[in-house]
Amino acid sequence: MDAFQLLFLVAVVTSISEWKSVSDSCNSQCKTMNEESFRVLEGESFFFVPYIIFKPNFNNKNFTWYKYVTQIQNISSDKKARVHYQGEALFLLNLSISDSAYYTAWEIKSSGRCVNHAVKIEVYNASYKGSKMLSYGEIKNSDQSKTVNCPDPVQRACSEFKGNITWYKDYTLIKDQHEVKVRVHHATKDHEGLYTCICTWAYNNKVYNTSGSRELVLQETAMHHLEILTPADESREQFADEGSEIKLNCSVLCGTNVKHDCNASWYINGIPFKNRDGYSQTTKIAIAEPSKNTIVTAILTIKKVSAKDFQQKFGCFGEGYYGKDNTTLTLKRKESIIPLAIGGVCVLFIGVFVAVLVKYFAIDLALFFRPYFPLSSSNKDTSLYDAYVVYQTPMDKITEDRLSQFIIQTLPSVLEDKCGYRLFIHGRDDIPGEDRLELVEECMNQSRRLMVILTPDLGSGSVTTERWPASPQTSVMGGFDWQVGLHHALVQRELSVILIQLGDTGPQQYTHLPPGLQHLIRKSAPLKWPEGSGGAAAWNSRFWKRVRYLMPATPVKKCAQSTIV
Question: Where does the chain cross the membrane (predicted)?
Fold first, then answer.
């Protein structure tokens, strides 16, 4: 019993005197039929007969109609009244908003039993014309040929009063359509819309209109296909952290244009899931565009993963129109990233440390492995000297002593005596009486390196000493031996150059040197002799290791011996 019936019965109880004649006629409690409900437009007319009555009898005196809004109102039986009844039929002509109400008919049968027929009528103003709210429902199926029937209240009015039917689609006239149904053959999307039939009927010499609408929806053909999308594999593991929350997705594809007969759910150890503490399951359905695929997803939420969950089997079950399928998922503990991070940091630290050591001790490593990996080209070299030593003519007593000490004592004692190299040094290896120009050219050709000793520039002018007699070739920087050496190094590219700096360069730096030598200095900075250092004279000091690194790998003496052998 709905609200209307309850209110109506309450009103009956409170209006005993009004209902006395009806109550006296009832031998027992009245039977209430199912309530009907209609939505109609203001200005139209409505003809209603209870659905159980096939053919209305306008002269049936056993029917009495009432209207209920806030109180029970009698309805006139006068045919001239706008709202009246005739036997079993209720007429609401030229509807107004005030006609919205509950209407009920009390039928007293010959046996004395009473029946209550109820109808709810809602009247909408003209602005709702064409609204789907007033539609009598959708016509939706996948058939290519569609049939749109005129709603029953409109059909009854036309049938009873011999009215004329006119059809409209989205309130555009459909020509030559006057039957109670419209047939649409080979329906396409263009045929979708709101179909309205309007019946024009005459009553008491007046013409009235009654309309009803149905919406035609073209439903595409359904294609059933069952597939579990996630978890994708037959047996799959998913990583999880103990004590954390995790969501497990069970997604099932049921086919195309399928809205029903599709289900996804979780099973735990083969038992259907039931809500329990710490677990919950939600299901959602989605239609993929533009494929129209129907996908149902069951989401199992574990609020706090426990040790027990790593031992359980979680089953994803999918059910479609034609069958079932399932897959299994297990949880696996995530490996901690901390050991991996520590290992990575250690490897990085070791790599950097090794790189620094290799860079710092690169020369030491190269010198250490030289004897074990001799160059094959060294055995074929027939040069007489490992290095041709050239230097500036000293210009003061202090520089002369420093240069003399380095050239005559330090350099030979390390490279020749301890390392086995053979040097050609001016003033020491010159042959008296031999042509100097020819000697320089020949010795330069027989040398494997050009060793240049740089001293500070003290200004222009030549200062000679007894130890270093001046000559046109050696008195100033740029003598013949310098020219030949630079030509071999820069033009012919036959000699590698070793630059050694004695003392400070001064504010002029190397601007007083020939352009070719300045070019060599820019390519490779000179090795500075650490005069005064305690271990500078030792053959394994840092300075001499760098010099030895730049010298040939195998001295000419050993090359000659290997050639003889």
Answer: 337-362
Distance CA 171, CA 164 (A): 17
Stated length of the chain: 565
Query: Which has the closest alpha carbon to 442: 484, 474, 475?
Result: 484
The residue-averaged pLDDT of 417-436 equals 80
pLDDT tens digit sequence for 339-384:
788 888 999 999 888 888 877 777 777 777 777 776 655 556 678 8
Helix axes 337-360, 362-369, angle to 10 degrees: 70
Q: How many CB atoms lie within 10 A of CB 418?
A: 14
Cα-Cα-Cα-Cα dihedral of 557, 559, 560, 563, to 10°? 160
In order of 267, 279, 286, the CA distances from 315 in angstroms are 5, 15, 21
Q: What share of the chain is helix, strand, coil (3-state, %, to 5)?
A: 30, 35, 40
pLDDT at 265: 92
Considering the entire predicted model, what is its pTM? 0.42
- Output 420 or 8, whichever has higher pLDDT: 420
- 322 touches 226 (CB < 8 A): yes
Q: 482: number of CA atoms within 13 Å, CB side?
A: 22
Instruction: DSSP for 199-218, please give it.
Output: EEEEETTEEEEEEEEEEEEE
Largest CA distance in the chain: 166
Residues paired with residue 451 on neighbouring β-strands, in sequence order: 389, 498
Angle between helices 16-25 and 3-14 (to 10 degrees): 100
pLDDT reported for residue 20: 36
129 and 171 Cβ atoms separated by less than 8 Å: yes
Alpha carbons within 13 angstroms on the beta-carbon side of residue 505 total: 16
For residue 485, pLDDT over 90 is answered with no
Q: How far apart are CA 281 and CA 551, in angstroms?
A: 80
Question: Model confidence over 139-168: pLDDT tens digits?
Answer: 877 677 888 999 999 999 999 999 999 999
User: Does the bond joining 290 to the residue before it have cis omega, within 30 degrees of 0?
Assistant: yes
Q: Which residue has the tokens 């073209």?
A: 218
**Which strand ranges, in their side-by-side order, compose the sheet holding 223-230?**
223-230, 246-256, 293-302, 279-287
pLDDT, tens digit, 9 for 90 and up, residues 432-480 = 767 777 778 888 888 888 888 888 764 433 333 334 444 433 433 446 6
Q: Which of 343, 352, 415, 341 is nearest to 385 (CA)?
A: 415
CA 433 to chain centre: 88
Q: Are strands 36-41 and 135-141 parallel, antiparallel or unpaired?
A: unpaired
Whole-angstrom CA distances from 392 to 408, 437, 455, 482 are: 14, 17, 7, 9
Helix 362-369 vs helix 542-550: crossing angle, to nearest 10 = 60
Q: Residue 356 is inside which H or E element, if any?
A: helix 337-360
Q: Which helix (H) or strand (E) holds 12?
A: helix 3-14
Amino acid at site 361: F
- Pairing status of strand 36-41 against strand 114-124: parallel
Q: CA-CA distance, 319 to 424, in Å (whole number)?
A: 97
Determine the 3-state secondary structure of 13 from DSSP. helix
Task: Find the distance separating the first CA and the last CA of the chain, reported in whole Å.
Answer: 126
Q: CA-based Rg of the chain, rounded to a whole angstrom?
A: 57
The pairing of beta strand 496-501 with beta strand 527-528: parallel
